[in-house]
Specification:
The structure holds 2 protein chains of 2 kinds. Chain A is mainly α. Chain A has one domain. Chain A has 13 helices and 2 strands. In chain A, helix 3 packs across helix 8 and helix 8 runs antiparallel to helix 10. The two termini of chain A are 30 Å apart. In chain A, 40% of the residues are buried. Chain B is α/β, with parallel strands linked by helices. Chain B contains 12 helices and 13 strands. Chain B has a 6-stranded mixed β-sheet, sandwiched between helices. In chain B, strands 11-12-10-13 form a 4-stranded antiparallel β-sheet, with helices on one face. In chain B, helix 5 packs antiparallel against helix 6. Classes of the chains: A mainly alpha, B alpha/beta. The interface between A and B is large, with 33 and 43 residues.
Chain lengths: 285, 339
């Protein structure tokens, strides 16, 4: 019985179907952390306010920047000023939700693995990925979310845009699965730390590439367009759904494509994550 | 309970020359070497046993523990604990074990202790009644009551360690791994923790694997010790047996009426002892002499000392386990050889 690890992935599935109440348990646990977080807000008030304000300032600067540029250029590759603002705002929604919920993945990339603190997650009978995620609730993300909501609503009003029932459904689906795209990219990049100990900069680069998707992707050349559509598919988190909403098209195809693409990225990221866990080497103590 | 056969763990390590240029060179041309952290470990632990797992820093203790707890995947060898293979059925396996790493806490920094335990209650799916019973027991053994409402970050090291041990015991594990549970603690707290460990072991018949550098932990808790060095086992047996076999070096403490007389004690001349077999050290108010009791009987040595110098007080110390281990660590003796 030589037991060189052959298929540990089998035991480390994201959610085992046989145990349906696992998700409920996870939500219960997350609630404890969120409640505790809210209590802590009082204690770390200054830190929270600084974080939220700095994000807001960052977002406002970005909007000002766009305003200045587009006051010179009334349209870009056929997109009007408020349409661009709509796409920009839309991109912040899935990004903000992901930021709110899974921010602890950054710590995995930067130090949890490097310092050997990942040991803890492996000695508990709960999926390590869920365990890492539930530990942190990043309120700073509200800066992004609020800016996003304000931009989308404001530009929609300016464009006299009112979504119908089908559009609302597409909005919900694309935001949900757009969030999954962000989370998947983060999972995959932070899992690289299992091999190279620290993958913060890699995560940073990939995460920053989502900035491309804040603008109509028709302004880029074919290469960039292909990459942000099918390699790191951030275009599905904002441009494609926003283009459908503003310019029309097949809502079923738009939502379906987003679901398909995000599911593929998610599966790949879980594969990388699970392989990473078997490669984990801990740290000396 | 625990069955380990020929367990090995190798790490690939990059060799870097010192300095920035070395770092750059290693990027271009990567040189690696294989480090055998654990090299063919075989051991067996019975249910309810407390095993002292000792060895010098870097001997491979932690790596071995991490394989036993399912954190690391062994390079080769077999491992069966509580009927399970840790790294294969990890999620099932860890339900039955508790782990404490003394060096780092497993608790959540900002959560009050009480909340920490309710999180763990959910993680381990402990039902309400059982949880309450367990908390009562742990409270009694570890005195958590006084700080249970404080956030973990405000706890003292001693409190934190007690909290950590309680956290690892909440789900009544069958096997408990304690990696340096008394590190950095004061004597009183150490003593309390030892008592708690012993109580938990008796109460639940928990099998305990304890690694430590504090030999008092070993002496109070463990009947059996396994010592490893450079990834290999160098000793497996009872503490008593270790003293019997290796504890030939005995120490006599002599208080002299005239400290100058120390130079008159010459066991080398009298008994023909070589430098390896004895050692005389001057202490603040006394002289300590260590000698190999296999070469010279204790009464002979005492007679010689009493006949040579004027003695105020004299004590013969028991075989010092620390001394034995120190020598084995320094590879001055090979296992099986007398110290």
């Amino acid at each position: 019985m030589i037991c060189i690890c052959s298929e540990p992935e089998n035991q480390r599935k994201f959610l085992d179907r046989k145990d349906g109440n696992k998700l409920i348990r996870f939500i219960k646990l997350y609630k404890i952390f969120v409640a505790q977080f809210l209590k802590n807000l009082m204690e770390y008030r200054i830190d929270f306010l600084t974080g939220a304000v700095s994000f807001l300032i960052g977002q406002i600067t970005n909007i000002l920047f766009i305003t200045i540029i587009f006051s010179q250029i009334p349209s870009l590759a056929g997109w009007k000023y408020y349409e661009i603002m709509f796409i920009y705002g839309y991109s912040l929604l899935p990004k903000g939700i992901d930021h709110l919920l899974t921010d602890n993945l950054w710590s995995v990339a930067y130090f949890i693995v490097r310092k050997g603190d990942f040991d803890k997650y492996l000695t508990r009978p709960i999926n390590p990925l869920l365990h890492v995620i539930m530990e942190k609730f990043q309120f700073d993300a509200l800066g992004e979310l609020i800016t996003g909501i304000v931009l989308v609503i404001y530009s929609a009003i300016q464009l006299n845009y009112v979504p119908g029932a089908e559009e609302v459904l597409v909005i919900l689906i694309t935001i949900l699965f757009g969030t999954l795209i962000f989370t998947s990219v983060k999972i995959a990049c932070c899992a690289i730390a299992f091999w190279i100990k620290k993958s913060g900069s890699i995560l940073q680069i990939f995460y920053m590439s989502s900035d491309f998707a804040r603008y109509p992707i028709t302004i880029y050349n074919k290469g960039v367009r292909f990459i942000i559509s099918y390699v790191i598919p951030f275009a599905f988190t904002s441009y494609y759904p926003a283009a459908y909403l503003l310019r029309g098209g097949n809502g079923f195809v738009c939502a379906g494509k987003t679901i398909l693409i995000s599911s593929i990225v998610f599966c790949i990221s879980l594969l990388i994550w699970n392989r990473g866990i078997s490669a984990y080497e801990s740290a000396g103590s | 309970m625990i069955e380990v056969k020929n367990l090995k763990k190798e790490f690939e390590k990059t060799i870097k020359d010192p300095g920035l240029s070395g770092a750059i060179m290693s990027l271009i041309h990567k040189k690696t070497t294989t480090v055998k952290a654990v090299d063919g470990l075989t051991m067996h632990v019975d249910e309810g046993e407390i095993l002292g797992f000792i060895g010098p820093n870097g001997a491979g203790k932690s790596t071995a523990i991490k394989m036993l707890t399912g954190i690391l995947t062994p390079t080769s060898g077999t491992l069966k604990i509580n009927g399970q293979i840790p790294y294969k059925n990890r999620k099932e396996y860890v339900k039955e074990i508790g782990v404490v790493f003394g060096q780092r806490t497993q608790l959540w920094w900002d959560l009050p202790l009480v909340e920490t335990y309710s999180v763990l209650k959910e993680i381990y799916c402990i039902d309400e009644a059982k949880f309450k019973d367990r908390m009562d027991f742990l409270n009694e053994v570890l005195n958590l009551q006084e700080f249970i409402k404080s956030p973990v970050r405000t706890l003292s090291l001693g409190q934190r360690m007690r909290a950590d041990i309680a956290a690892s015991m909440l789900h009544s594990p069958k096997v408990l791994f304690l990696d340096e549970p008394t590190i950095g603690l004061d004597v009183v707290v150490k003593d309390n923790i030892r008592k708690a460990i012993s109580k938990i072991n008796k109460n639940d018949k928990t099998t305990i694997i304890l690694t430590t550098h504090d030999l008092n932990d070993i002496e109070t808790l463990c009947e059996r010790i396994v010592m490893i060095d450079k990834g290999k086992m160098v000793y497996d047996g009872s503490l008593y047996h270790m003293k019997e076999t290796y504890g030939k070096m005995r120490e006599v403490i002599i208080a002299l009426n005239n400290p100058e007389e120390i130079k008159n004690i010459k066991p080398d001349k009298k008994f023909g002892l070589t430098a390896d077999d004895y050692d005389i050290a001057k202490k603040a108010n006394s002289v300590s002499m260590k000698f190999n009791s296999a070469k010279v009987e204790i009464p002979d040595m005492l007679n010689y000392i009493l006949g040579t110098v004027s003695v105020k007080d004299i004590t013969v110390k028991d075989a010092d386990i620390e001394e034995i281990i120190k020598k084995i660590y320094k590879s001055e003796v090979k296992p099986g050889e007398a110290v």
